[in-house]
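Retro notes, item 3 of 5
We never archived the inputs for the iron/sulfur cluster complex last cycle. Fixing that now. Sequence and ligand:
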Amino acid sequence: MDRRDFFKIAGGTILAGTSGVYAIRRLTGSIPGSTVADSPLTGKKWGMVIDLSKCVEDCTACLDACRYENNVAFHQDERWDVHWIRKIRLESKIGTTSTEKSVILLCNHCEKPPCAQVCPVQATYKREDGIVVVDHHRCIGCRYCMIACPYNARYFNFKDKEDWSNTDRPKRSHGVAEACNLCAHRIDLGELPACVEACSNVGEGAIMVGDMNDSGSEVAKIIMAEAVKRLKEDLGTEPKVYYLGL
Ligand code: SF4
Ligand code: SF4
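Structure as it came back at the time:
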């Protein structure tokens, strides 16, 4: 199956407005000129499964694809770098035996997202289909969401990015917060998020996205049948990123 046609599109497509070179911050009112559109797909709830056993230690395909697709401000300087998706090494020790594994981290698109609850201007919100997004036109850069997120999934644009890799996607200025938006613009077109496609293209398929409301979807089947884990489940945020092999 062509993975870009993986999703079944139930309705028409509404594209996010992409006009405006730099974000204009608004404090109140409706969202004219918003860079984020509500999902045109009704009845969906997008979730992700990451199979860590398939993730190759030195592979950065998903990270590279995300940075390119979303114009993520990656300056190769940890003081300023923004990460929508990252990989860390986890070491676990049982007795004298220690094992290491790579873990992919990104926004969990929490069903009860504390980041959205604290945002004073509703710049961060959860779409009907469960994707948590930031409207950069509304963000005032207070960074409450970064403090509220228990997963350190949010980053702040301290510096403008000079080279914009993907001219089809909106630019944003320094002074706004952001996190993975599950490539909502691609999902709305029936395409896979850039990281999922990149991982598939290198032959691994460690990252899967699908409709959790569709019991026949690959993601829903894995969540129902396999020993999946979520991060910090005890907090009650109900993350929608599930791990195999964590
Ligand atoms: S992981 Fe953090 S940024 Fe993402 S929805 Fe949850 S609280 Fe918000
Ligand atoms: S920094 Fe976060 S909490 Fe503050 S306005 Fe922007 S999105 Fe909302």
